[in-house]
Design a protein that fits this description.
The chain is α/β, with parallel strands linked by helices. The chain has a single domain, classed as Enolase-like C-terminal domain (TIM Barrel), CATH 3.20.20.120. Helix content is 39%, strand content 13%. The chain is built from eleven helices and nine strands. The strands form two sheets. It has a seven-stranded parallel sheet. Strands 1-9 form a two-stranded antiparallel ribbon. Helix 4 links the parallel strand 4 and strand 5. The chain is globular, with a radius of gyration of 19 Å.
């Protein structure tokens, strides 16, 4: 609603560098995944997958590091799946691959703060994702000293302007990411990344490369995502239309959100 109908913050760049995303695939498949992200110099590797063990993570991250070479940037994302001891052990095991940062290694703010204290001497930054967008107070992470940077998504934080204000108040570097959005959602993420005064890290907005189809073309070009609104393709909208039940679910959700936004 915010992105569709309200004025948006001004952009300070016309393209946003993005990272490749490597799901929790076998190590032997990592290079093939990376090939879908031409020009990307950074890879985010999923770790702590249910049913896998730390050795699987180490093998996958090693394969990504070998594919990117020493100049590439490698970050890992555990989606809050480790406790503090598990996270500390994993950071030690993965440190040899020169991690750019570890994203949401633990689930809550207190755990992140404790882990950050334990591994600070290693020089591997801790990034908060779910702890920012799911907390009632997204600034609690910064106040607790629980992270070195924030991973932000425009949609769950209330839109581009709201997310920008949270990043500004937190005073921490930010990485703008997607939640496997369509091209339209990626356009909103790119608008947020383009509005940040400083953008130290490549953003997680190249996820269209993981799709087999989309409502428009929003693939990275030479490792960067262009900034600008997306016009969906009419044939794609028809081809990819949701079921009647799912459409009704979304319309009902929009009505509830509109009521909340319109309330005094």
């Amino acid at each position: 609603m915010d992105f569709a109908w309200r004025p948006q913050p001004a952009s300070v760049r016309d393209a946003v560098p993005v990272n490749a995303t490597v799901p929790a695939v076998p190590a032997s498949d990592a290079a093939a995944v990376l090939s879908r992200f031409p020009g990307c110099r950074t890879a985010k590797v999923k770790v702590a997958e249910p049913g896998q063990v730390l050795a699987d993570d180490v093998a996958r991250v090693r394969a990504v590091r070998e594919a990117l070479g020493p100049e590439g940037r490698v970050r890992v994302d555990a989606n809050g799946a480790w406790n503090v001891d598990e996270a500390e052990r994993a950071v030690h095991a993965l440190a040899e691959f020169d991690l750019e940062y570890a994203e949401q290694p633990c689930a809550d703010v207190a755990e992140l703060a404790e882990l950050r204290r334990r591994v600070k001497y290693m020089g591997i930054p801790i990034a908060a994702d779910e702890s920012v967008r799911k907390a009632s107070d997204p600034l609690a992470v910064a106040r607790a000293g629980a992270a070195d940077l924030l991973v932000v998504k425009a949609q769950p934080l209330g839109g581009v302007a709201r997310a920008l204000s949270i990043v500004t108040e937190a005073g921490l570097p930010a990485v703008v990411s997607s939640a496997l959005d369509t091209a339209v959602g990626l356009g909103q993420g790119a608008a947020l990344a383009a509005a940040l005064p400083d953008l130290e890290y490549d953003c997680g907005l190249g996820t269209a490369a993981l799709f087999v189809d989309d409502v428009a073309d929003r693939l990275p070009v030479d490792g960067a995502l262009p900034v600008g609104r997306v016009t969906p393709d009419a044939a794609a909208l028809e081809r990819l239309a949701a079921s009647d039940d799912r459409t009704a679910w979304w319309l009902a959700r929009l009505e509830r959100c509109h009521a909340l936004l319109s309330a005094p």
